[in-house]
Design goal:
The chain contains three helices and 25 strands. It is mainly β.
């Protein structure tokens, strides 16, 4: 018992001495005196200018910590500012530092302002800051809480001539380690603009990730939830994207269910869309498979706002983004009473080639067009009927595609025109359909 008492007394005295040493260092040490050394070291090692226009303060109570205000870092070999912080606060745990573990009880950043640039040749303005394969971390890090308040991030993509901006960004997380992240919540406003054209889209985004585990060959999460709203003039899109039960093995990943909910409004027309499907893919082959997918659609038109057009489609989709790219879809279902079966094959995303086969048992175009201003007499002549259909189905959007396919319609109606048993052999001719009709 005497031995235990002796050891306890030694530990108690050691703690008192360490506490006294910390208090003495904080009281006597003036960190601002080392600003010139810090800024010169950054300039020599990174060829960037570090500006510390505010104070550097050390704290002991209630936690050992560091507080830095008005910090700026320049672009590489330039005076232009790359990142600016109004204030950064770190609350540290002391004991883990002795075993090279950096445990941050709380990290708070206020007024973060940063600009990321991707140049036309693919380089970025942070290439010199990214770790290389030869770099080994000096510390294992563990952050108990992270708060980012009122941040603004700009991404200038000169390669695609777009400018993206996130403003009023607020982010919080619980525990972050090298292999996990808990309870991430992000909310931000933003806009996108073409660098050379006068166009813009505004958006609001909210991201929630309850938990995430990751590694070189591993990724897992119970759920990833993204809510977004995009507006352009009087047009808007509201969407919710969710992935559930995400797992990975090697470069293969899958999710029990992916859901997409969209509500779009354009020119007084409202489209509601709900899509869900299990998801699997491979990062090496850049393949994505959606099996047992289902799409529910409702369209509200100005001429009949209380009677929506409804549809439902089921099927499988397969996408490969590996150059030249490939998409295959097999779908079946109904649209406003019309039974539909469709197969699509799109190859070479750079020079798209589309092949398709669509079978529709009946199609009433009157349901999708505004009411006619004058009543048309029924068309008796098959040639006139075919010409009328060709004019009605003028797909100018297909002008840039190499299109070949077959469209079969059991019965077709447009205004007072009725045709049954027709088939279109479709080929692209400056966006117009070349068709042949069969009885």
């Amino acid at each position: 018992m005497y031995r235990h008492f002796k050891y306890s007394l030694v530990i108690f005295i050691a703690i008192l001495l360490l506490t006294g040493l910390i208090i003495a260092v904080v009281t006597l040490y003036e960190p601002n005196a080392y600003k010139p050394l810090i800024t010169q070291w950054i300039k020599d090692k990174k060829k960037r200018e570090l500006r510390l226009d505010g104070d550097i303060r050390l704290t002991v109570y209630p936690q050992f910590g560091l507080n830095i205000s008005q910090l700026s870092l320049s672009e590489y070999d330039s005076h232009e500012t790359f990142i600016h912080l109004e204030n950064i606060q770190l609350a540290l745990s002391l004991w883990p530092l002795l075993s090279k573990q950096l445990v941050v009880d709380k990290l708070t950043m206020q007024g973060l302002d940063a600009k990321l640039i991707r140049y036309a040749d693919g380089r970025t303005n942070i290439d010199d800051l990214l770790p290389t394969d030869d770099d080994s971390p000096a510390f294992e890090f563990d952050i108990e809480q992270l708060h980012v308040n009122n941040a603004e991030l700009v991404f200038r993509d000169e390669k695609n001539s777009r400018n993206y901006r996130l403003s009023n960004l607020n982010l919080t997380t619980d525990k972050i380690t090298e292999l996990s992240l808990d309870n991430l919540k992000l909310h931000a406003l933003g806009d996108t603009k073409h660098i050379k054209k006068n166009d813009s889209n505004h958006f609001e985004v909210q991201l929630n990730i309850p938990n995430l585990q990751f590694g070189v060959n591993h990724l897992a999460s119970d759920q990833i939830n993204l809510i977004a709203k995009v507006t352009q003039l009087e047009n808007s899109i509201n969407g919710v994207f969710t992935l559930s039960n995400i797992t990975s093995a090697g470069r293969h990943f899958e999710s029990d269910m992916m859901t997409i909910e969209l509500a779009a409004e354009k020119n007084a027309q409202i489209v509601n869309l709900f899509f869900h499907s299990p998801l699997s893919g491979n990062l090496d082959t850049q393949e994505l498979k959606l099996s047992d997918a289902e799409l529910n659609l409702r369209i509200f038109q100005p001429q009949s706002p209380d009677i929506p057009i409804s549809g439902n489609l089921q099927g499988d989709l397969f996408v490969s983004s590996k150059s030249p790219g490939y998409l295959q879809a097999n779908l079946s279902g109904n649209l406003e009473g019309s039974l539909i079966k469709a197969e699509f094959n799109l190859s070479d995303f750079n020079k798209p080639v589309l092949q398709f086969m669509v079978d529709i048992d009946q199609f009433n175009m009157n349901r999708y067009l505004p009411p006619p201003q004058q009543k048309h007499q029924p068309t008796k002549n098959d040639k006139d009927a075919t010409n009328h259909i060709n004019e009605s189905l003028d797909f100018a959007l297909l002008a840039d595609l190499d299109v070949n396919g077959t469209l079969h319609i059991g019965s077709f109606q447009s205004n007072d025109l009725f045709i049954s048993g027709i088939q279109f052999e479709v080929q692209n001719d400056n966006g117009h359909l070349q068709t042949s009709q069969t009885e």
